Amino acid sequence: MRVLLVEDEKKTASFIRKALQAEGFAVDVCRNGNEVADLIATTPFDCVVLDIMLPGRDGLSVLRQLRESHHPTPVLLLSARGNVHERVEGLNAGADDYLPKPFELDELVARVRALTRRGAENRATVLRVSDLSLDTITRQARRGGTTIELTTREYRLLEFLMRSAGRMCGRMMILEKVWDYDFDPGTNLVDVYVRRLRDKIDAAFERKLLHTVRGSGYVLKDQP
Amino acid sequence: MTIRTRLTLWYGCVLFCAVVLIAILSLSEVQERRERFHRHDRGMRELIEIMLGVGIPGAALSVAGGWWLTRKSLAPLAALTNAAERLNENTLAARLPRSHNRDELDRLTEVFNDMTARLHQSFERIREFTVHASHELKTPLTILCGEAEMALRDESLSTAERERCGAQLDEMRRLARIVDALALLARADAGLVELKREPVALDELVHESFADAQILAHAQGVRVELREVESAAVSGNAHRLRQLLLNLTDNAVKYNTPGGLVTMALRNKSNQAEFVMANTGHGIAPEWLPKVFDRFFRGDPAHNSDVEGCGLGLSIAKWIVTAHDGTIQVESIPEKLTTVTVKLPVFLK
C-alpha cells in the first residue's frame, strides 16, 4: 500500500511518515500543493493524506482539481483551521474523510487503513467475529448460543466495531460514526459505552474479543 | 432641568426684560415730547397697555421660538446620548451621522465617532489575535502530541518512562481540547461561524442525550430521570444542538455528588421549546451566578478544584443558544438544586 503525504510542516510530516511506515505503508512526502497533480498522474497511490494549508495551491483546490479530472484515489484531509464548516466543505469538494489538527496518530493511521480497504468493507447482513454474531436486520446479537440485549446506541457501536473488525477504531472515529458528533466532547463517553458493551459480550467468556489499543481506540478481533 | 428648558427660560427672561426696558424708554421719550405740547395724564395706562399688548405675546412667542431653537441645536446631543446607550461590543462598527457645520456638537460627534472607532479597532485586534493564536497553537500541538505518541510506541521504554510520557500526552490532549474550544469561540465572536440550519426534532435529541447521560452518570453514582418530553421541532443545527445538550449533561453530572440526581424535561409552550435540566450537588452561590457563562469560569473554587474540565462548556452552550435565537438561564439553590433552562423558538412551517 502506497500513501502520498502532502504536508509542508517538516516535523508533522516526519512523524506521520514514521507512523504510517511502522504500519507497513510506503510513504511519499510532498511539500507543495503545485506538485501533487504531477505526482498522482505518474504514481498510483492507494490513499492521499492532504493538508489544507499548503504553499502553492491549497489543499482544497488540489482536491477539487483531482476530482474534476475524475481521479478516484481516496483522500484524507488534514486541517488546523478548525472551521466548523470546513469539514462539510472538504467532504463536498470530494474528500473521503476529514481530520482536524491536532489529531491522534493512531486515529490517523486507522483512518488511512479504513480508506485503503474501503472497497472490501463488510456488507453482509449477519456480521460474525469468532462466535459473536450480529444480525443487522433483526438487530440481535448472539454469542455462544446466548442472546445479548443491546440498547440502540450499543447496537450501533457494536455494528461499527464489527464492520471494521480487525482494524483499530479511534475515539473520534467512533464519536463520528456512532454519535454523529463532529467535535471532541472531552468526556469519556466512548470508553464508558465500550466498557458496558464489553460487560455484555466479553465478560462471561474466556476468549476476549474487544481490545483496547494503547489508550487511543478500540479493536474487535479474534486474536488476543 | 434639561439644558433645553434652562436655555429656553433664560432666553425668555432676557427677551421679556428687553421688551420692558424698550417699552419704558420709548414711553418716557414719547411722554417727554407730548409734555412739550400739552399736559397729559394717560402715561401710566399707556405703559400698561403697551406692556400687556406687546410684552406678553412677544415674550410667549420668544419662549416658544427659544424652545424650538434650542431643541434644534441640541438634537445632536440627544442623538449622541442614544448612540452611547446602544453601544456594546457588537455595535462598535456603527458611526453617528455628522452635521459638518463645525459647531461644538459636531466636534463632539466627531470625537465620539473617533473614540468608538478606536474601541472597535482594539476589539477587532483582540478577536483576530485569539483566532490566530488558537490556529497557530495547533501546529506545535500536533507536533508535540505526535512526537509523544511515537515515543510511546517505543517498546524499549520502561514502565515509569511510559507512564510519564502517557501523562504528558493526556495533558497535551487536554490543552488541544481547550485550544479547540477557544478557537470555536473566537471564530464565533468574529462572526466567522455560520450555522447551517434545518428543522431538527429536539425531542429526539433529548432522548439520545438522556441515554448518554445515564451512562455518564452511572459511572459517578448519579441517577438520571427523564420527565415529560413533548415533541418540538426547532430550526437549528443538529451537531451544535447535540453539543449543547452534551455540555449541559456533562456539567450536571460532573458538578453532582454521589447518590445525586439529574432530571431532564422538554416542554412545548406556545411556540417555544423549553428544555429544563436540573441537578443536585453543591450548586452555585449567588455571587458566582452572573459569571457562569464567562470563559474559564469553573464554579466555586471551594468545591470544584478537582473537577476535570476547561471551563468553556457553558460559554459554548451560551453561544449555541444565542446563535439559535434562544435564551439560556441558570438558577441555583446552593447545596440543593441547580436548574438550567434553555428556550428556543419552535420551527414554524
SSE blueprint and pairings:
The complex is a heterodimer of chains A (224) and B (349).
Chain A: E1 2-6, H1 10-22, E2 26-30, H2 36-42, E3 47-51, H3 59-68, E4 75-79, H4 86-92, E5 97-100, H5 105-116, E6 126-129, E7 132-135, E8 140-143, E9 146-148, H6 152-163, E10 169-170, H7 171-179, H8 189-201, E11 210-213, E12 217-220
Parallel strand pairs in A: 1-2, 1-3, 3-4, 4-5
Antiparallel strand pairs in A: 6-7, 7-8, 8-9, 10-12, 11-12
Helix pairs in contact in A: 6-7, 6-8
Chain B: H1 3-37, H2 43-86, H3 104-153, H4 159-189, E1 198-201, H5 202-218, E2 223-229, E3 233-236, H6 238-254, E4 261-269, E5 272-279, H7 301-304, H8 313-323, E6 327-333, E7 337-345
Parallel strand pairs in B: 2-4
Antiparallel strand pairs in B: 1-3, 4-5, 5-7, 6-7
Helix pairs in contact in B: 1-2, 2-3, 3-4, 4-8, 5-6, 6-8
Task: Please name the defining characteristics of this protein.
A: 224 residues; alpha/beta; Rossmann fold; Arc Repressor Mutant, subunit A; 2 domains; four-stranded antiparallel β-sheet; 8 helices; 22% strand; B: 349 residues; alpha+beta; Helix Hairpins; Heat Shock Protein 90; five-stranded mixed β-sheet
What does this structure look like?
The complex is a heterodimer of chains A (224) and B (349). Chain A is α/β, with parallel strands linked by helices and 224 residues long. Chain A has 2 domains: 2-119, Rossmann fold, CATH 3.40.50; 122-220, Arc Repressor Mutant, subunit A (Orthogonal Bundle). Chain A has helices spanning 10-22, 36-42, 59-68, 86-92, 105-116, 152-163, 171-179, 189-201; strands at residues 2-6, 26-30, 47-51, 75-79, 97-100, 126-129, 132-135, 140-143, 146-148, 169-170, 210-213, 217-220. In chain A, α6 (152-163) packs across α7 (171-179) and α6 (152-163) packs across α8. Chain A has 8 helices and 12 strands. Chain A starts with a strand and ends with a strand. Chain B is α+β, with helices and mostly antiparallel strands and 349 residues long. Chain B folds into 3 domains: 3-86; 101-193, Helix Hairpins; 198-345, Heat Shock Protein 90, CATH 3.30.565. Chain B is built from 8 helices and 7 strands. The longest helix of chain B has 50 residues, at 104-153. The relative contact order of chain B is 0.07. The mean pLDDT of chain B is 84. Chains A and B meet through α1 and α8 of A and α3, α4, α5 and α6 of B.
